[in-house]
């Protein structure tokens, strides 16, 4: 016996929407007004959503409970798995003393907090989003900024805001791949459409970030560096998304903007070095120098991390890892137990990709990095235990947030909210990004939001005579600015920035910026739909014919062999260079 979802349970769409919005409104109220801790707000929101799902939508109690359990399990793996490994990597670097060398290196480039934020939060974070995604960029960059001496709230907040520009092309373009699969529009035109929207945001984002940190006047003082950072990123994002596809824009734009800004700072420096008000003056000692071996050793965890996440993103390697290290099961009692109004039966398979998961790639980087940075594996185990203790409440929060997202989706509450936006007629292109924003706020993932709403975006646009690639791309672009206020993202950033229990402060820090950027994207999409139609790419829909592909395992094993050789070569080089005696005293213990 299957339970059939309903979209208008009260037979009055206005009343149904008001009831469906209650859990969402509660989250905003709890975090902004009541300033609740993240896990408390999430657990209460689950109770509210469950009561509405059972009493209003008629969802069986058993299915509601199982749906929450399914979401919580997904929160633990792969999301928490990735977050724990990311923070573990950073903690290893700190414990070994190597992060002191990294701080010295950053100060040698610039001790100005504004420029450090551009390099780490914006450019390096974008690069990490393109390779790993799923919370790793915010976790790693926020921890790095806190380690450099940033105010934890500003460190976590600006990393969340900076993470908007690259989210659409995160994890080697997975959000766009999913949108293509669901909507039937090829990947390239979606990538092109998103790449003609987000670069506008990318150009302004560096100035916006600096203005948040230091104010308008202080942001103007470094406008040349801001322009180099933003324009280089936006150009490379536009070029790669329009001509290379959705897989590499973040990697290319992130690396490109880092290189451009570092080169520029060799020839230009701000007149004054800006730091936080209560922060001591910079104490950079130019007499202290480190050998190339010491620098390479200090950065080795992040170099290995980069190599591993790029390798794990390659399809041949992913295929091989999944063939030997994955199992899946039908979620008991939930699989095929819910039917959508369109007749689609919801498959509830839980895939445990324990080898190909991004968190496993970071774990491998952790294990390789431990001896390279001078720690023993027993010391590494102690750091891991401390990391788990540090993250116990964030883990609970993330599991609760995902349980909340799943009950909203499975009960039909999310579909009720989406149905209203889809009935806005001529103005639908303006509200299309709102749908993506809502999806990411609820699920914490642009990929999940695209899986939810891409088909609805396609069908609605077609019915009002708008090219559907505009609204499908708008779902992605709108989703990126919902990421910064998603409870899942807030929990990750709070964990990395040592703000556990202060999630409400972080939410209030980012929420106004999310609304502002959402409005900007809504206006851009509306103009693209009716005024600037020349920005819409020409394309043909994907064929509906089924294709079969065979797995070429040999190619994946060759890639893995190449990865092993690369890691051995890198490790040998680091050990050899680090063993050379420095020319100047090394003050790092």
Walk me through the topology.
Elements: E1 3-4, H1 13-20, H2 22-33, H3 38-55, H4 61-95, H5 98-109, H6 113-131, H7 136-148, H8 152-162, H9 170-183, H10 187-194, H11 198-214, H12 216-221, H13 223-243, H14 249-267, H15 292-313, H16 315-324, E2 327-330, E3 338-339, E4 349-352, H17 358-372, H18 377-390, H19 392-411, H20 413-422, H21 428-443, H22 446-463, H23 468-482, H24 487-496, H25 503-530, H26 553-578
Parallel strand pairs: 1-3
Antiparallel strand pairs: 2-4
Helix pairs in contact: 1-20, 2-3, 3-4, 3-19, 4-7, 4-17, 4-18, 4-19, 5-15, 6-7, 6-8, 6-9, 6-11, 6-13, 6-14, 7-8, 7-24, 8-11, 8-24, 8-25, 9-22, 10-13, 10-23, 11-13, 13-14, 15-17, 15-26, 16-26, 19-24, 20-21, 21-22, 21-23, 21-25, 22-23, 23-25
Query: Which structural class is indicated by helix and strand composition?
Result: mainly alpha
The ordered H/E elements are EHHHHHHHHHHHHHHHHEEEHHHHHHHHHH
Strand content: under 5%
Rg from alpha-carbon coordinates: 24 Å
Number of domains: 1
In short:
This protein has 589 residues and is an all-alpha fold.
Report on the structure:
There is one protein chain. The chain has 589 residues and is mainly alpha-helical. Helices cover 71% and strands 2% of the residues. The chain has one domain. It contains 26 helices and 4 strands. The chain has a two-stranded parallel sheet with strand order 1-3. The protein has a two-stranded antiparallel ribbon with strand order 2-4. The radius of gyration is 24 Å and the shape is globular.
């Amino acid at each position: 016996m299957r339970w059939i979802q309903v979209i208008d349970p009260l037979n009055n769409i206005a009343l149904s929407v008001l009831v469906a919005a209650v859990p969402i409104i509660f989250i905003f109220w709890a975090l902004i007004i009541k300033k609740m801790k993240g896990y408390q707000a999430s657990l209460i929101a689950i109770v509210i959503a469950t009561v509405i799902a059972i009493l209003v939508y008629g969802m069986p109690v058993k299915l509601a409970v199982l749906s929450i359990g399914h979401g919580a399990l997904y929160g633990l793996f792969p999301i928490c798995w990735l977050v724990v490994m990311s923070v573990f990597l950073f903690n290893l670097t700190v414990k070994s003393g190597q992060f002191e060398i990294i701080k010295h290196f950053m100060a040698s480039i610039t001790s100005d907090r504004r420029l450090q934020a551009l390099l780490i939060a914006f450019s390096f974070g974008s690069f990490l989003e393109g390779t790993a995604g799923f919370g790793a960029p915010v976790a790693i960059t926020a921890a790095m900024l806190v380690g450099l001496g940033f105010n934890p709230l500003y460190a976590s907040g600006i990393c969340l805001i900076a993470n908007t520009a690259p989210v659409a092309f995160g994890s080697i373009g997975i959000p766009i791949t999913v949108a293509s699969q669901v909507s039937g529009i090829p990947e390239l035109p979606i990538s092109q459409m998103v790449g003609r929207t987000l670069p506008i945001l990318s150009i302004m984002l560096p100035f916006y970030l600096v203005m948040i940190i230091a104010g308008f006047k202080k942001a103007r003082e470094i406008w040349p560096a801001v322009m180099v950072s933003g324009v280089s990123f936006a150009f490379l994002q536009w070029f790669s998304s329009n001509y290379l596809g959705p897989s590499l824009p973040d990697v290319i734009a992130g690396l490109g903007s880092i290189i451009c800004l570092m080169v520029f700072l060799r020839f230009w420096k701000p007149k004054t070095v800006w730091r936080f008000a209560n922060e001591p003056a910079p104490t950079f000692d130019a007499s202290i120098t480190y050998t190339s071996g010491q620098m390479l050793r200090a950065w080795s965890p992040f170099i290995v991390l980069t190599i591993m996440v790029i390798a794990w993103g390659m399809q041949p390697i992913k295929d091989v890892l999944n063939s030997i290290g994955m199992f899946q099961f039908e979620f008991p009692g939930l699989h095929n137990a819910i039917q959508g109004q369109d007749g689609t039966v919801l498959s509830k398979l839980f895939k445990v990709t324990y080898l190909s998961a991004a968190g496993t790639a970071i774990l491998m980087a952790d294990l390789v990095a431990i001896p390279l940075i001078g720690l023993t594996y027993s010391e590494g185990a102690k750091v891991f235990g401390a990391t788990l203790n540090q993250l116990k409440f964030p883990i609970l929060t993330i599991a609760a947030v995902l349980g909340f997202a799943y009950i909203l989706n499975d009960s039909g509450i999310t579909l009720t909210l989406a149905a209203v936006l889809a009935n806005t007629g001529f103005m639908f292109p303006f509200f299309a990004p709102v749908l993506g924003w809502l999806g990411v706020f609820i699920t914490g993932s642009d990929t999940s939001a695209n899986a939810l709403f891409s088909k609805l975006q396609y069908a609605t646009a077609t019915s009002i005579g708008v090219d559907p690639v505009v609204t499908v791309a708008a779902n992605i672009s709108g989703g990126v600015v919902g990421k910064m206020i998603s409870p899942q993202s807030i929990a990750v950033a709070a964990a990395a920035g040592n703000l556990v229990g202060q999630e409400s402060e972080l939410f209030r820090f980012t929420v106004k910026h999310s609304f502002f950027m959402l409005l900007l994207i809504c206006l851009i999409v509306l103009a693209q739909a009716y005024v600037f139609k020349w920005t819409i790419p020409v394309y043909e829909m994907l064929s509906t014919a089924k294709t079969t592909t065979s797995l070429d395992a040999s190619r994946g094993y060759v890639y893995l062999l190449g990865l092993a050789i690369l890691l051995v070569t890198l490790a040998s080089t680091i050990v050899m260079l680090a063993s050379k005696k420095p020319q100047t005293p090394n003050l790092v213990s």
